[in-house]
Write a structure and sequence with these properties.
With about 450 residues, the protein is α+β, with helices and mostly antiparallel strands. It folds into 4 domains: about 30-65; about 90-175, Pdz3 Domain (Roll); about 180-320 and about 335-360, Alpha-Beta Complex (2-enoyl-CoA Hydratase, Chain A, domain 1); about 360-455, Orthogonal Bundle (Muramoyl-pentapeptide Carboxypeptidase, domain 1), CATH 1.10.101.10. It contains 15 helices and 19 strands. It has helices at about 1-15, 25-45, 50-65, 75-85, 115, 140-145, 185, 190-195, 210-225, 240-250, 290-305, 375-385, 400-415, 425-440, 445-455, and strands at about 70-75, 90, 95-100, 100-110, 125-130, 130, 150-160, 160-170, 170-175, 180, 200-205, 230, 255-260, 265-270, 280-285, 305-310, 320-325, 330-340, 355. The strands form 4 sheets. Strands 3, 4, 5, 6, 7 and 8 form a 6-stranded antiparallel β-sheet that branches. Helix 11 (about 290-305) links the parallel strand 15 (about 280-285) and strand 16. Helix 4 crosses helix 6 (about 140-145) and helix 9 runs parallel beside helix 10 (about 240-250). The longest helix is centred in the N-terminal third of the chain and has 18 residues, at about 25-45. The chain is globular, with a radius of gyration of 26 Å. It starts with a helix and ends with a helix. The model is unreliable at about 1-20 (pLDDT under 50).
Amino acid sequence: MKKLISVLTVAMMLTMFGHPIEAKTDEEYLIEIQETVNLINELYVGDEVTKDELYESAIKGIESMLDAYSGIYTQEEAMELVSTLNSDYVGIGVGVQMIDGEVYITQVFDGGDAKDKGVMINDQLIRVNGEEVKGQDLDSVVSKIQGPEDTTVDIELLRGEQTIALTVERRHIMISSVEPLDLKQIDSSIDSAIQSQVAAYTIDTFSEGTDEQLFDIIKVKKEAGVKYLLLDMRDNTGGYLETAVNMGKVLLPEGIITSLVNKEGESFVYRSYIEEPPFKIVLLVNGNSASATEIFAAAVKESGVGVVIGEQTFGKGVAQTFYQTNSGQIVKLTTEEFLSRDGNTIHGIGVKPDIVVDMPEYIFAQDRLYIGDNSPQVKVVEELLSYLGYLNEAPDETFERATFEAVKKFQTDAGLYSYGVCDYTTQIALNTVYIQSKQTRDPQMQRAIDWIVEDAK
């Protein structure tokens, strides 16, 4: 009888709604949503759900149809999100990235409580305040981690098979976006005469004020007779478009810096009007260099003002704009695509350096890797082992005998149980040793210095 009633009901519904579907007006859609919410509110006997929750879910459903860079936020969430673009912010002191749909810790900053609580690079973030982060966009996750100073947030991390629950304090953290580099520490053999011609800096983000810091540097270095400006923008995921444009206006030769194209195909062009740039620019980028960094990198490459060295950049070639609705919600929308100086597409492609110097990625695997396994993660492990001097064969996706022996040797040297299986502890150790090795051996930076030495002859 139940099945019969169900079939009859469905048949009636099909009969009622069997006519051709016509496009609904905005008003009809709003009425339909309101009627559905009212129906659920009046008759639904499942778990209790409020009208507010239903309407918020409808908004989240709309949000899920947008790209990864758009989102809908409360005013508080939006303010916290904007603060992440600056080097002066309140947070727990981590950098995160979305990798294959999962959120991983990729940076742990000094001064943050996360470092004090033992959070490590390679930890997978699975919950914030009890809410699963899987399926959420990265901006939403970041906004939940952040909050008022001296408050706490509960996070859960997955480290191998171990789940770690932590209560972490939000602190005021200062990270200078422009930091000087000592070339003598990087290459002790560099000639002092050449060193005096080079100004070298790391730029971690295009935050508010990054351009002004650089303006002061440019003035001083130009007066001192510096000829080369070495800028390390590896892992710089971007920031404010205006900051990148302002930097381009004082460093790049006359011409287009970037063009922004909207939905209607209309373009807005940012230009530099400098007849003679103050320096030759040597720019370092990698696969995490994104957005505003890519605008600057493409302009350096295509203007001929210098050279770009490193790895293909990330490929985020779209710009977002914040809007406030009458209800007070903040909507961040992808509104424009930006093109390079020569009109080339960056989104989904990235910027290929003039001189490619590939480096291994970090290993982000949640599974043990055994001899005979075949996966992209095996190749990452082999690249790390090769870079660290444990593997002589060309890295591929197959865990072969040579890989097994290399893992065993690494485990012995790292003080781990040496049995050839690349377990999670070994993966963490590979990342850690790799990070440490880059402090004294940096092929990309060394190639930049070599280029300057060759060019100065």
